[in-house]
Amino acid sequence: MASSRDRQRKLARAKLDRQLARRAAVAKRRRQIQAGVGAAVVLALIVAGSAWALGAFDSDPEKPTAEDVCLWTPQDGAANTNLKDVGTPATKDLPTEGTRSMTITTNQGGPITVGLDLADAPCGAASLAHLASRSFYNGTNCHEITTEGALRCGDPSGTGIGGPTYSFYNENVPSAPEPSPSASPAPGQPPAYPKGTVAMIGNPPGTNGSQFLIFFKDFNPAKPDYSVVGRVTGGLDVVEKIGALPTVDNGSGAKVKPKTDVVIQSLTVGDPNAAPAASSAPASSPSAG
């Protein structure tokens, strides 16, 4: 009988060991599954976080901001009542290549056309175009024939201190001529402002607004101050005719005011023209014979 009970106890023990082994195996598999799921969740969170940091979930990605081409300095119209508020030009996305055609029609003859230089004077060209779009110049007088050989225009007040309620800095001032033993520039050098040059003029120098000069003579100062904005492309004879008009005292002792009013009837600025493509080979000469 004792052997029978011992055998039964052994069988029960073995059965319990098998049950415990099966339970341990099930618990191990559950832990493995849980660990795998946890690792997958952590990996998914890492991937999602990296994608979020890189902007993958942005509904409207931020576009790069265009850089300012020109800056316009506000001027106080209350302190200077000769200034006229017509807003300010744009600061971004301004043309910086090629040219724009400016046409000035006066009461003194045919139109004067100017090629505005967008590459070297984008801000001067932008200001002139903005003011022209506001009819700023229409009906104004060119109030001076300067001793430097230029027609001065663009001040509705005719005082020399008028303009818009903004200004901008010089951007295309010619280099100073090489020194010579005398006070004058060395002979043989091209003038800083050849006849037909159009340049901005500010008061004080460097605070440009609406006023500009059209040179009807070569001018070569020891220290250039005016920012070149373009060149006359047509009607230079009209400018020379105006430059020959007699002048009278402007009220401050300077004999620079045209005796006959020079009125800008209209000033317009056209759309930008692309810069001409460089030729890969020089133009051929006509064949002989």
UniProtKB/TrEMBL annotation:
InterPro entries: Cyclophilin-like_dom_sf (IPR029000), Cyclophilin-type_PPIase_dom (IPR002130), Cyclophilin_A-like (IPR044666). Pfam families: Pro_isomerase. Residues 176-193 have a biased composition (Pro residues). Residues 99-269 form the PPIase cyclophilin-type domain. Coiled coil: none annotated. Signal peptide: none annotated. GO terms for molecular function: peptidyl-prolyl cis-trans isomerase activity. It comes from Micromonospora sediminicola. Residues 86-106, 170-197, 269-289 are annotated as: Disordered. This is Peptidyl-prolyl cis-trans isomerase B (Cyclophilin B). Residues 274-289 have a biased composition (Low complexity). PPIases accelerate the folding of proteins. It catalyzes the cis-trans isomerization of proline imidic peptide bonds in oligopeptides. Keywords: Isomerase.
